Structures are given as structure tokens and as C-alpha cells.
Amino acid sequence: MKVLRKAVIRRKTKEVDIYIELDLDCRGCSIDTNFPFFKHMLETFVKHSEINLKIRALGDDEHHTIEDTAIALGIAIKKALGEKRGIRRFGHAVVPMDEALTICGLDLSGRGYFVIEGDIHENYIHFLDTLCRNSGMNAYIIIKGKNMHHKIESCFKAIALAFRQAKEIVGHDIMSTKGVLD
């Protein structure tokens, strides 16, 4: 029996209204947000992680929208991964983009933690940290470069490629000597 790795999450506060449908095993993208660069980064993540993601993320400002989308997407990822039986668990990527370079190592351990060496816009550091904490991802990222757009985009591509590897079903066991990933 094939396990469906899907989740639907709704997060509504006084500041935002977020709706997410996620399928880890299909491809597709529908992103509706009032912040064009954020939309571009979400589309980049979807494309390179090879997932199907529908998001409607509307908020009163960019910070609240980005933060609450990360919370909801993180919860959706955690829910869709379930007990993580058979996943590769680890992923990594090296992504150049013009003068920028991002290196990412990722572990779907269940213990969300985020480390970054290098600078990108604080909203996107906050997005990635919040995503990791809420999804149970452990990500270590090194970023070099000059152009902020290129650094952020290479970062989203790197974490997406690492996530694509880590979520891949490669067996039947839970990849932990403890027998659980949480």
C-alpha cells in the first residue's frame, strides 16, 4: 500500500490568511501572494524540490506573510512526511548562480535547526529558520556572493535540491538507530 504524503494546512490570524496544499510525490505549483519576490522564491523551491504546492498567502505586510507562510509550510511538510519510513533522510546541494554560491546540508531528523554562514535579507533568514523549526528539518547553509537576489535564489535552490534528495523514498526502514525520526 502506497502512503500518501500530502497535507492541507490553514493558518488565519489577524495579520495573515494562509492556505497550503502540499503533495510530496507530485509536481505542480500555484502560488498566490501579494509579494512578487517571495512568490518567485516559493516557485523556485517548488520547482527544484519536485513537489506539488498550492499556496495562498495574503497578509498585512511582507514580514508577517513570510513568517506565517514558513510556519504553515513547515507544519505541512512535517505532516506530509509522517513517520518518514523509507526516506533517504539526508540531502545536500551546491548551487552557483552568477557570482553567488550556496552550499546546503539537510537532515530530516525531526529536530528542526537552522544555521547559516553568510548574509541574506533578514526576512529570508527568518523564513528558513521558521521553516526548519516547524518541519523538523536540520539545515546548514553557507552562502557567498555579492548580489542579494542571486544569494537568496541560490539558497532557495540549494535547500530545495537537498530536500528533494532527503524526502526520496529509497527503502522501507526508518533511517535511525533509534527507530524513529522525531
Provide a short characterization of the protein structure.
This protein is of the alpha/beta class and 182 residues long.
The number of distinct helices, counting runs of at least 4 residues, comes to 4
Largest β sheet strand count, sense and barrel closure: 4 strands, mixed
Overall spatial form: globular
Strand order of the largest sheet: 1-2-4-3
Q: Count all strands and give the number.
A: 8
Helix content: 25-40%
CATH class: Alpha Beta
Distance between the termini: 23 Å
Class per helix and strand makeup: alpha/beta
What is the mean predicted local confidence, pLDDT? 95
Q: What value does the Rg take, in angstroms?
A: 15 Å
The tally of domains stands at 1
Give me the strand/helix succession.
EEEHEHEEEHEH
Contiguous low-pLDDT stretches (5 residues minimum) are none
CATH architecture: 2-Layer Sandwich
How would you portray this structure in words?
This protein is α/β, with parallel strands linked by helices. It has a single domain, classed as Ribosomal Protein S5, domain 2 (2-Layer Sandwich). The protein has four helices and eight strands; from the N terminus they run βββαβαβββαβα. It has helices spanning 36-49, 62-81, 122-135, 148-167, and strands at 6-12, 16-23, 28-33, 52-59, 90-97, 100-107, 113-117, 138-144. The strands form two sheets. A four-stranded mixed beta sheet has the order 1-2-4-3, with helices on one face. The protein has a four-stranded mixed beta sheet with strand order 5-6-8-7, covered by helices on one side. A hairpin with a 3-residue loop joins β1 (6-12) and β2 (16-23).
